[in-house]
Structures are given as C-alpha cells and as structure tokens.
Sequence to fold (516 residues):
Amino acid sequence: MDNLIDIKGVTHAYRTKSGPLPVLDDLNISVPEGEFAAVVGPSGCGKSTLTRLIAGLMKPDRGEVWLHGERVTGPRKTVGMAFQNPVLLEWRTILQNVILPLEIVAPGMPRRDREARALHLLEMVGLKGFEHKRPSELSGGMRQRASLCRAIVHKPDVLIMDEPFGALDAFTREDLWQTMRDLRAAEPFTCVLITHDLRESVFLGDQVFVLSGRPARTQAVLDVTLSADRTLDILFEPAAQDMLHYLRDQIRIAQGRDGETH
Amino acid sequence: MDMLRKIAVPIAAVLIFLCLWEALVWVNQWPNYKMASPSDLPPAFWKFRHLFLEMGWQTLWRTVLGLGIAVLVGTGIGVLMGFSRIARDALYPLLVGFNAIPKATLVPVIALLFVGQHDFNTVLMAFLISFFPIAVSVGIGLSTLEPEYRDILRSLGASRMTIFWKIALPKTLPEFFGALKVSVTLAFIGTNLVEIVSPHGRGLGALFKSGETNGDYPLMFAVLIALAALGILLYYAVLVLERIFAGWAERPSG
Fold:
C-alpha cells in the first residue's frame, strides 16, 4: 500500500540563546493512505513541531517530509489542522467559521455550495441548529466540534490534530472520540493525531507511534488490532488493556524513568 | 422599562448636576464674572446661536478629519510595528518621545511652519495628538496574535495579505476601538488648543477666546457646555461604530 505520509530521518533543532535545542532526531513515521496515526510521547518532546513540519509551516534541518509522493516544501491546500485551542474567529458565526478554509482553497465555489457542505458537516457532529451562533455562545466541546468541521470542510487528504481534545473534560472527550470515529467513516482522510491520552490513541488510532523524550525519535510502533467500528466498551477488553499497558511502559521508558519504582 | 432607565438615569444625573451648580452660585452670591450659573446660559446660547452653529461645525469637522487621518496613519504605523520587529524597535522610542511632548508646545512651532493656515494647523494638531494610542494598540494587537490563528490559514497556503484581512485585522478591532475612544477625546482637545491659541481663529475655541476678550463670561461658560456636548456626541459616535464593527467582542450578559 502507498504511504500518504512519509517522514524520513527528520532532525530538527530550535535555535535558542543557550545554543541549539534539538527536538527531533532522525524521526521516521509512515502513514498509509486512509490510516489513522496516533503519536504519543512525553511532554515537550517535539510533537507539535512534528505537526508544523507535516503541514509545511516549517522546514526540518535535515530529513524529508513527503505527502502523496511529493516532497513538502511549504503549505499546501490539501491539509487540515485542528489544535487544542479551537481558534474559532469570534466575529464569525459557527457556519462562517467552518466555511473559512473554502474561501482560501476554493474561492470560486458558490456560496450556496459552501454553506451546504458546512451545514452537512455541522449536522454530522451534532451542531445542527447552532450554525448561526457565535463561538462564545457555545461550550468548549461544541467549539471543538466546529473546529473539527473547519479542519475537514475542504476535504483535505491529511488531517493533522495537535491534542484537539486535551482541554476537554473526560466525558466530553469520549463523546468527541466517537464523533471523530464517525467522521472518519463518512469522510476519507489520513490522520495524524498528537495526544497525551493513551486511551485516545488506542481508541482512534490504527497505529500508535511512541516518541522518546527530547530529542524525539520513534521509540516504538504499535499496531492497534481492534475492529474499525469500535465502541468505548472495547477499551475495557483485555486486548485493549494489554495495548494500554504496553504503551504505558513505553512512555515510562521515554520519560527515562525505567528504573524508578512504580 | 430598561430603555427608560437607560435614558432617564443619565438625564436625571445631568439635571441634578445643573441644580447643584445653580445652587452653588446662588448660595455664594457669586457675580457671573466669577462663575456663571446655568440659568445664565440659555440667553448666551440664544444671543450667539448663529456663531455657535458655525463655530461648532468648524470644530466638529476639523476634529473628525484630524481623527480620520490619525486612524489611517496610526493603523499604518501599528501594522508596521505589528509585523516587523525592526520597525517596532526603531519606532517605539520615537513614538513614545513624541507622545511625551506636551502638544501645547507644538502650537507655536506649527504656527511658524504654516503661517496663517488655520484650518490646516488645527487638523494637523488634532491628528498629531491622537494617532499614538491607535498606533500602539494596533501594533500590540497584531504582534500578540496567537500563532495558531495564523496557522489555520497559513497551512492552506494563504498569503500574508489574506491572513491580515481575514484574521489579524478583525481580531484587533476591539483594541482599535478602545484606543479610538481615547483618541477621539484627544483629537477634540487638539483642535480646541489651536483654536484658542491662534489669533483670529475659528471654531468653538476661538469663540471661547472672544468671550474672554470681551468679558462675556456667560458666553465662555456656554462654550464650555457646548464643548462638553460635542465631546459626548463624538464619543458616542465612536461607541456606535464599535457596536457595529466590533459588537461581537461584547459577551452576552447574564
């Protein structure tokens, strides 16, 4: 199968006052088309840098990022992004917010078609009836739903998510996982999800990449061998529990606390 | 009921203020060359009603024009400072230094530079005194834009111009209007400063000056009231604009 995302030997360092700060070290990640890659790792290990590299917002010091067999040299219209902060524009309604990428990517698209596309997505994530509200009138979970719609409204090949559910409470987060699962079933896209939540990585991911502590390299890759139509209950079954234990151990190693009592 | 309160309370407050003023003058038995009382004002207004209209208009258009130029130039400088570190480092000390100069000291400088250009000098002063808050607030608003806001469009390959129009500029509007409320008052002060100081000036400031020259104290007080009224008018005009263009920044109350 073709890989949609190929990250080959990417090394990157930030220039700081006290010299270069290496964040990524010979990182390799491949994601086949249509697959969902979850990336976990200790805090500050360079996961957000990874998202910016894939999106073409930054260039790596060394190594290459390939999307669709083309080397990434700058931003491209076939990428969608969602962050922990939903970054909705307060002066636009929810509908206008979701339409925003279409204004850039498809300026010639008739207004009616744009709105129809946005409304369709909003309905899928359960925001029907809220399209004319302002972001400040919505709860955190609802705002994140709208942010997801905006990230995929232009049908990107790649959806890059940087801890999108990190600021939500546990139950809202689980709701969003299911929304994400349903969106994936309806809309084909390849996804890279950066997360701190191991349960999230197992519930949503087809593969889970564990990054080591800074500078990050690929420490372990886990194939999530669960059925595609997962329910939350699956997380309590032995197969999932084993994976979670394995990931937990890997994170501990990544944090460099292997020898500590735990 | 709510509407009634919104209108009735401020009006009642103004009436009470006028009553207290009248009482103060009456109790102290001040002659009106010491302090005119509110009851002296309507005759003064009536007597000079044509002058008030003409001079008030002069003051109004010069203030608005000066403020308009301040908005354009201030926003321009702010955009420069918001996007370029070098511009920020270079302009900041200059701006702060310039802002620290009491503008009254500039009146003779301007008067000598542009002799007899009364309209021009007045508008220039209104602009000079009022662009600073706008420049600073736009600059800060743009430079503190969270990178994620930029990234949602930049990751789609949007140009800097597009990001500016679609995100950066609207996002700084609340700060801009905050500054504009300060600037409108400053511009008004600048206009009047030149009007009062310039010989043979026009505008409400000049009318005040002529009241002083002729010993017509009720006229001087009437001008002060007219200035206050015009100031309120300008301020509320900015509020209305803010409501229209940045009303989204107001949180729903309750």
Observations:
- Chain A is about 35% helix and 25% strand.
- The domain at 1-78+158-169+190-257 of chain A is CATH 3.40.50.300 (Rossmann fold).
